[in-house]
Amino acid sequence: MESTSTLRRTLRLPHVLFFGLVYLAPMVVFAIYGTIVEASKGMAASSYLVAMVAMMFTAKSYGEMVKAYPVSGSSYTYTRRSLNAHVGFMVGWAILLDYVFIPMAIWLIGASYLNAAFPAVPVWVWVLLFILVTTVINLFGIELGANLNVLMMAFQLLVIALFLALGLMHVWHAQQAWSVFRPFASPGGSFSAVLAGASIACYSFLGFDAITTLTEETLEPTRTLPKAIVLVAFLGGVIFIVCSYVGQWVHPSLVFENVNSAAFEIAREIGGTLFSAVFLAGIIVAQFASGLSAQASAARLLYAMGRDAVLPKRVFAYLHSRFRTPVLNVVLIGLLAFMALFMSVETSTSFINFGAFSAFTCVNLSVIAHYIVRQRRRTWRDWTVHFLFPLLGAFFDFWLLLNLDRDALRLGAAWAVLGLLYLAFMTRGFQKEPPELSMDAHGGGMPV
Fold first, then answer.
1. Does residue 7 carry a pLDDT above 60?
2. Phi and psi of 60, rounded to 5°?
3. DSSP summary character for residue 339
4. What pLDDT is stored for residue 148 in this prediction?
5. Which domain does 230 fall in, by range?
């Protein structure tokens, strides 16, 4: 069996940056646009700005932890090594929440847009089709190639460019009496509304931290990866802010035919039937590909946890004898996705953000624990980069966590309690450390 402990270091900054942007999927801004507009009371651009600030501090913390642990890692690894093994397990449990339920949110969003285009077909039919098609593909172990990723990214950027150009032309021809600052400060809005929108907007940023999985294949990873992580969060944020800004400029009203497919209505308004069809194709292609990879990643994570005895090995570490895929895990993710039929887009994305914010908060605290507490680095630069910045990041992440949808907070709290009970059982009342999940790049780790 070929060893995977010595991976070839060939990736430079442009390669890593492209990987991060592909993982981020820029068109996700349109997928939840209406939900954020509604939650922020018409200040989606401000919500994305606040979310970007929070993510920039967190991205900086991920970069600092890459320097500390230059191996294929994650928030699970950083927290376990810098804070505590039990806290690390709980962060891993929060990550599991993201992985298991992200496909559900992706398919629900895609189904909402298809329902807007074909209202005669109920949402549940589209959700069912998404689940069946992607589950069958993942059961056979088919993976998306690098060339397909390039084409999909190019298509997404083309659709975004067309949306912005047509949106600005629409505003110009309409000669609307409109303040350029209104998308940032809508009448009747409030900072609490901006935070409510920001707590959902962070869903769009999920994935910038996946760059850490490329540590062992990147040239000068301690220099390249921190730059790439921050750049991906920044560029993603700029795209999200500009798109939401133009969208609100075109359609300043908070009223949509269907809030879950609001961006499709705007696309139809600015480009007619032709562009709305292209726009819908971009959304569905992006959502389908994201759902396919998300389900595969979730099944891979469950397999890794079963293999390392973090979860029952007999079930979660099972591989199909012919296809060599974790078929039980793939089917389980598909079955859990049926919860989408009983949840709104806002609740499903907020539920996922509960896990993300929990993990992000702990990564920020890990920077302080590693550099300031353990290594006792106390220069002015350290107090700024390794204390003030991560402290602000942890504050923003925790603040956004508290501003999540109430139903999502209840579900997230229940998930955390379940994880704590399982941890107590597995460690015999916290008397021993939980098993450690191996983090090899190709054996199935936690790339979040």
1. no
2. -60, -40
3. G
4. 60
5. 24-293+320-421
209, part of any domain: yes
92 is a domain residue: yes
Which tokens in the block code for residue 383?
A: 């107090």
Check whether 224 has a pLDDT greater than 90.
no
Q: And the tokens for 38? A: 């509604």
Amino acid identity, position 140: F
Residue 310 belongs to a domain: no
311 alpha-carbon distance from chain centroid: 24
155, two tokens: 């298509």
Distance CA 97, CA 351 (A): 8
pLDDT digits (tens, 9 = 90+) for 272-297: 889 989 998 888 887 777 777 778 77
- Which residue bears the tokens 């039919």? 125
For residues 257 and 185, what is the distance between their CA atoms, to the nearest angstrom? Answer: 24
Q: Write out the two tokens for 284.
A: 């569905």
Q: How many domains does the chain divide into? A: 1
Residue the block writes with tokens 């109430």: 406
Whole-model pTM? 0.80
Among 330, 424, 402, 349, residue whose Cα is nearest residue 112: 349
Contact between 130 and 113 under an 8 Å Cβ cutoff? The reply is no
User: For 33-78, what is each residue's pLDDT tens digit?
Assistant: 988 998 888 889 999 999 999 899 999 999 899 888 876 557 777 8
Distance of alpha carbon 212 from alpha carbon 47, whole angstroms: 26
Contact 131, 334 (CB under 8 A): yes
Token pair 């970007």 is at which residue?
A: 52
Decide if 428 is inside a domain.
Answer: no
Residue 290 identity (one-letter amino acid): S
Q: Model confidence at 144, in pLDDT bands (50, 70, 90)?
A: very low
Rounded to whole angstroms, the Cα distance separating 147 from 158 reads 17
- Alpha carbons 334 and 107: distance in angstroms, whole number: 10
CA distance 128 to 8: 41
Contact call for residues 189 and 41 (beta carbons, < 8 A): yes
CATH number for the domain spanning 257: value is: 1.20.1740.10
240's CB contacts (< 8 A; 6+ apart) are: 26, 29, 48, 51, 52, 201, 204, 205
Give the per-residue pLDDT at 1: 40
30: nearest Cα among 251, 229, 243: 243
Residue type (1 letter), 200: I
| Tokens encoding 448 | 């979040």
